[in-house]
Design goal:
The chain is an alpha/beta fold and about 350 residues long. It has two domains: about 1-50 and about 160-355, QueA-like; about 50-145, Thrombin, subunit H (Beta Barrel). It is about 20% helix and about 25% strand. The protein is built from ten helices and 17 strands. The protein has helices spanning about 1-5, 135-145, 185-195, 215, 230-240, 250-260, 300-305, 310-325, 345-350, 355-359; strands spanning about 15, 25, 40-45, 45-50, 50-55, 60-70, 80-85, 110, 115-120, 125-130, 170-175, 200-205, 225-230, 245-250, 270-275, 290-295, 335-340. β1 (about 15) and β2 form a beta hairpin. It is globular, with a radius of gyration of 20 Å. The two termini are about 40 Å apart.
Length: about 350
């Protein structure tokens, strides 16, 4: 597997950033020992779709690549919001990719065995809503046969679909891998179970990380639907009631849990949509700590970290990534960051954070 060559589950690095900004580097294998009985770990079980489709713009005969970027309705494969590129492939940096031919509502796309029609072009010439023609079963089959995982130039070898599935991948819902979950292995999950640390999942349609256009990137993440099972909502409530921490595996889990929470911090089970960005001004109601990748300033994922830590801490974190040669991107190393105590309610919670995350 290509992913195994780029992502070292057993030998990866982990930076732990405490609630007061203290930092320490650990082997990622230590992840299993950092939480306490009664804590709850929540991960995204979304499998990654083969969301990159090459084909032809029927009106001009020009080559196109369509990257599916958002659901119209979660689980309905007939319609998507998508990003269009011209000729080329992932080995060219996304921001250097050629533009597609001029696109308009009603244009048709031949995407391998699939036929699609552009329902409308949105407020950017590469951002569109498309509808696949045919029965749902045939669309699913066509995506599986012709689609490829979305990927970027830092991994030149073509990725297979199983390369971008985490160990807990279930329903195909994500457009790019919920990659924080790559840090999970069966040994870690078993260790948490033995130590009575809870584990639950939700499904969040993790979106694309780059459009290749600076203006479009400022809109990321797009609206992302999610599903919170009743069992997960109950597990969050139980963890909160017993004074345990809720730890998110990935920024997609933070978005889903915080979107599903009401003002009192109660999670609503069922379907929802996570809208807008989480950032410096966001008051987190649910998540106490986040395991994520080594993101870079300016990325939408990095902006979310501002809800957990102040600018000075994040600057030191970024410097630590460089000093310790942390690998970025989806197959990179990890950071576990605890939420800083900013409000009286947060400070009251500080006694519940173990020493591994308190400093």
């Amino acid at each position: 597997m290509i992913a195994a060559r780029h992502f070292d589950r057993r030998g990866g690095k982990l930076l732990v950033v405490g609630a007061k900004g203290a930092m320490r580097r650990l082997p990622r294998t230590e992840l299993a020992s950092l939480f306490e009985a009664g804590d709850l770990i929540v991960a995204n079980d979304a499998a990654t779709l083969p969301a990159s489709l090459k084909g032809t713009h029927r009106e001009t005969g020009a080559p196109v690549e369509i990257r599916l970027a958002a659901w119209i309705r979660l689980g309905d494969p007939t319609g998507f919001v998508a990003i269009a590129f011209g000729a080329g492939d992932h080995r060219t940096r996304t921001e250097d990719r050629l533009a597609p031919p001029p696109l308009a509502a009603g244009d048709r796309l031949a995407l391998g065995p699939l036929q699609a029609i552009i329902e409308r072009v949105l407020d950017h010439p590469r951002l569109l809503v498309l509808r696949f023609l045919g029965e749902r079963a045939a669309i699913h089959a066509g995506l599986a046969r012709h689609g490829r995982p979305i990927q970027y130039a830092h991994v030149p070898e073509p990725l297979a679909l199983w390369d971008v599935w985490t160990r807990i991948a279930a329903a195909p819902a994500a457009f790019e891998a919920p990659s924080a979950g790559f840090a999970l292995d069966w040994a870690t999950l078993a260790a948490w179970r033995r130590r009575r640390i809870g584990f639950a999942t939700l499904t969040h349609a993790a979106g694309i990380s780059s459009t290749g256009d600076a203006l479009l990137d400022k809109r990321l993440p797009f609206d992302e639907p999610y599903q919170v099972p009743h069992s997960t909502a109950a597990a969050v409530a139980a963890a909160k009631a017993r004074g345990g921490k809720v730890v998110a595996i990935g920024t997609s889990v933070v978005r889903a849990l915080e979107a599903a929470a009401d003002e009192a911090g109660v999670i609503r089970a069922g379907d929802g949509v996570a809208r807008g960005r989480i950032g410096r001004e966001t008051r987190l109601r649910i998540v106490e700590a986040l395991l994520t990748g080594a993101h870079q300033p300016g990325e939408s994922h990095f902006e979310l970290l501002k809800a957990f830590a102040d600018e000075a801490t994040l600057e030191r974190m970024s410097a630590a990534f460089i000093a310790n040669d942390f690998r970025g991107h989806e197959f990179g190393d990890s950071v576990l960051i605890a939420r800083a105590r900013r409000s009286p309610e947060d400070r009251a919670m500080s006694a519940l954070v173990p020493a591994s995350l308190a400093e």
